[in-house]
Amino acid sequence: WNNNSDFRDLLLSDNVYLNSRLASFYNVKLPPNTPFKKTSLKSQQHSGILTHPLLMAGFAYNQTSSPIHRGVFISRSLLGRRLRPPPIAVTPTPQDLHPNLTTRQRIAKQTSPKSCASCHDMINPLGFALENYDAAGRFRTTERGKPLDTQGHYQTLAGDVVQFKSAPQLGKFLASSIEAQDAFIERLFQHMIKQPILAYGLNTPQNLHKSFAQNKFSIKHLIVEITKTAATTRRKSRTGKSK
Questions:
Q1: Which of 124, 160, 201, 204 would you call most buried, defined as having the most Cβ atoms within 10 angstroms of its Cβ?
Q2: Which of 22, 18, 10, 55 is nearest to 40 (CA)?
Q3: Per-residue model confidence (pLDDT) at position 88
Q4: Residues 212, 181: contact at Cβ < 8 Å?
Q5: pLDDT value at position 4?
Q6: Crossing angle between the packed helical segments 204-214 and 219-232, to the nearest 10 degrees
Q7: CA-atom Rg of the chain in angstroms
Q8: CA pair distance 191, 196, nearest whole angstrom
Q9: How high is the pLDDT of residue 117?
Q10: Which residue numbers in the chain have pLDDT < 70?
Q11: Which spans in 80-233 are helix H?
Q12: DSSP string covering 193-238, please?
């Protein structure tokens, strides 16, 4: 909500609000009895909401991280990709069955069947980039005594393959990704207007993205443009008639 209101800061900022108790839990040094304050987590490779402790803990199990849940969040919510429901219900493989495997190795083993590949070939590499964050969102470099492998990749809708080796690298890709920008516009439009964006014209996503980019990805400006679009555009009904 600052003057810049830059969408990209949501994915690139290295700041999070902590007090002394939370700072201690997340291995950040703050003086005792410090109230909530903006705190830099640059040394822990923090990357905006992508690695926010609340999200990392929310998309995890009680004792382990969950690259699948995190990868689905990035695919659906940040990149706007549509995922098909799983063909079968699969119970996660308990870590105790494979005590010598890291979470990444267990997930790769569990999702190796061809029936899983159509979705997990995209989901898993995105989630693996966040393996530096444990089930509570704390930064780590090893799991079960083994160095973490956080390499991942993503094939864009244009067919380009993007490689990344850490959460900040993934964050930089998402911040500059047209797919992620379009997904943000569509979800913000739906949240504000309670209607699908295409109900206001096939060119509406393109027009809003153009304005968004021209105004340095200002969220404040985008909110104004969405409001103007909804107020001045005749919405199409399901029958194709204007309302």
A1: 124
A2: 18
A3: 66
A4: yes
A5: 83
A6: 150
A7: 20
A8: 9
A9: 81
A10: 88-90, 236-243
A11: 103-110, 114-128, 167-176, 178-193, 204-214, 219-232
A12: HSS-GGGG-TTHHHHHHHHHHHTTTBHHHHHHHHHHHHHHSPPB-T
Residue 182, token pair as written in the block: 């379009």
Q: Which amino acid is at 229?
A: T
Looking up tokens 């992508």 gives: 50
- pLDDT of amino acid 98: 76
Instruction: Tell me the residue type at 126.
Output: L
Q: Which amino acid is at 182?
A: D
Give the chain's length. 243
The two three-digit tokens of residue 97, written as one number: 């069955």
Q: What does the pLDDT read at residue 147?
A: 95
Q: Which two tokens stand for residue 128?
A: 């693996």
The CA distance from 182 to 76, in Å, is 12
Say if residues 103 and 67 touch (Cβ distance below 8 Å): yes
